[in-house]
Automatic annotation (TrEMBL):
<dbReference type="GO" id="GO:0004641">
    <property type="term" value="F:phosphoribosylformylglycinamidine cyclo-ligase activity"/>
</dbReference>
<feature type="domain" description="PurM-like N-terminal">
    <location>
        <begin position="56"/>
        <end position="163"/>
    </location>
</feature>
<keyword id="KW-0436">Ligase</keyword>
<dbReference type="InterPro" id="IPR004733">
    <property type="entry name" value="PurM_cligase"/>
</dbReference>
<protein>
    <recommendedName>
        <fullName>Phosphoribosylformylglycinamidine cyclo-ligase</fullName>
        <ecNumber>6.3.3.1</ecNumber>
    </recommendedName>
</protein>
<keyword id="KW-0547">Nucleotide-binding</keyword>
<dbReference type="GO" id="GO:0005524">
    <property type="term" value="F:ATP binding"/>
</dbReference>
<dbReference type="GO" id="GO:0004637">
    <property type="term" value="F:phosphoribosylamine-glycine ligase activity"/>
</dbReference>
<keyword id="KW-0963">Cytoplasm</keyword>
<dbReference type="Pfam" id="PF02769">
    <property type="entry name" value="AIRS_C"/>
</dbReference>
<comment type="pathway">
    <text>Purine metabolism; IMP biosynthesis via de novo pathway; 5-amino-1-(5-phospho-D-ribosyl)imidazole from N(2)-formyl-N(1)-(5-phospho-D-ribosyl)glycinamide: step 2/2.</text>
</comment>
<dbReference type="Pfam" id="PF00586">
    <property type="entry name" value="AIRS"/>
</dbReference>
<keyword id="KW-0067">ATP-binding</keyword>
<dbReference type="InterPro" id="IPR016188">
    <property type="entry name" value="PurM-like_N"/>
</dbReference>
<dbReference type="GO" id="GO:0006189">
    <property type="term" value="P:'de novo' IMP biosynthetic process"/>
</dbReference>
<feature type="domain" description="PurM-like C-terminal">
    <location>
        <begin position="175"/>
        <end position="341"/>
    </location>
</feature>
<keyword id="KW-0658">Purine biosynthesis</keyword>
Length: 367
């Protein structure tokens, strides 16, 4: 028998087929009547007939990954939460413009297919898709021996949604005096983990070590899934209509940079640190590194996962509604369009010429 076979090169197609069998039921659970063709086709099919009900439908799309958070999942052999992170990073970007997610696809690259592991990742993706009303219509698992180690993998995904053109959220709706509401994060979410891993490695901290500040291990704390905001925010968009003006997903770049992206040019906002107390995980990481919370503002979300810019007359009601739905929400700033104070502001980000934002004051002490 020749040694020059796909199996000899390190690719196990049978393991890939086994992984698909293990994940099928979870994927099918995300399918509504719009999904055609089931699981396993060359392309996922989604019936777009419902778009006929839109006067001017705009398709929104986003793609992302989870970053080096996967290294922690791999180290601990815990893989069922990474999927929630992926959906949070991809689908929650779509809701920023007010779009309702329609469908998503995923891509997993690995050094060796471990069917149960791949199935666990996809089950997590499917669970989060169900929570956000997104159909998981397809995906790919690629085995890359020699490029990735046998236990290494990375995940990515892409999603598509739709929004009525005259209901699209964005900087053009933002007005002087608008209120900026902060929506609490569930922890680190999926950004800044290269820094987290660097800090812990330098201090000799193991993911299995228990942290008294959390009452659980570092691994358990760090693998807390990214909070999913799509469903509650779409509910706010439906309930409050034009009183919701813009949204910002606080991911890479931190609070100031991501808020600046959705403000109109010439506007500015000062986010008041004293309105919240960052969670213990941020404080402890800073203590270990010997750095301040302020120094990590461009890396971590520090307790704010989303920002909503709203009509001031509706701010209190929207805050109450989100908090009642399980997401702590509070006012952190107001948008201004007049002359801004002296000092350094973050102006736009990622190629967007938006507004200007800075954080001011001092964080509340831990509670």
């Amino acid at each position: 028998m020749s040694s020059h076979t796909y199996a000899a090169a390190g690719v196990d197609t049978a393991a890939g087929d086994r992984a698909v069998e293990l994940m099928k039921s979870a994927v099918r659970a995300t399918h509504g009547p719009e999904v055609q063709g089931g699981v396993g086709g060359f392309a996922g099919l989604f019936d777009a007939s419902a778009l006929r009900g839109y006067a001017h439908p705009l398709l929104a799309t986003s793609t992302d990954g989870v970053g080096t958070k996967v290294a922690i999942a791999q180290a601990l052999d815990v893989h069922d939460t990474i999927g929630h992170d992926l959906v949070g990073m991809v689908v929650d970007d779509i809701v920023v413009v007010g779009a309702k997610p329609l469908f998503m696809t995923d891509y997993i690259a690995c050094g060796k297919v471990h069917p149960e592991r791949i199935a666990a990742i996809v089950r997590g993706i499917a669970e989060a898709c169900t929570l956000t009303g997104t159909a998981l219509v397809g995906g790919e698992t690629a085995e890359h021996p020699g490029l990735l180690g046998p236990d290494d993998y990375d995940v990515a995904g892409a999603a598509t949604g739709v929004v009525e053109a005259d209901r699209m959220l964005g900087a053009d709706r933002v007005r002087d005096g608008d209120v900026v509401l902060a929506l609490a994060s569930s922890g680190l979410h999926s950004n800044g983990f290269s820094l987290v891993r660097h800090i812990l490695a330098g201090a000799g901290v193991s993911y299995t070590d228990t942290a008294a500040d959390f009452g659980r291990t570092w691994g358990e704390e760090l693998l807390i899934p990214t909070r999913l905001y799509t469903t509650p925010l779409l509910g706010i968009a439906d309930a409050f209509g034009e009183r919701l003006h813009a949204l910002s997903h606080v991911t890479g770049g931190g609070i100031a940079a991501n808020l600046a992206r959705v403000l109109p040019q010439g506007s500015w906002a000062e986010v008041d640190r004293s309105t919240w107390s960052p969670a213990a995980v941020f404080r402890v990481l800073g203590d270990i590194a010997g750095t301040s919370l302020e120094s990590s503002e461009g890396t971590w979300n520090l307790g704010i996962g989303f920002l909503a810019i709203v009509d001031p007359a509706a701010a209190s009601e929207i805050s109450v509604a989100l908090t009642a739905g399980g997401i702590d929400t509070w006012q952190v700033a107001e948008v201004r369009t007049g002359a801004r104070p002296e000092g350094e502001f973050e102006e736009g980000a990622k190629g967007v010429d938006g507004g200007a934002v800075r954080l001011v004051g001092t964080y509340r002490e831990g509670e």
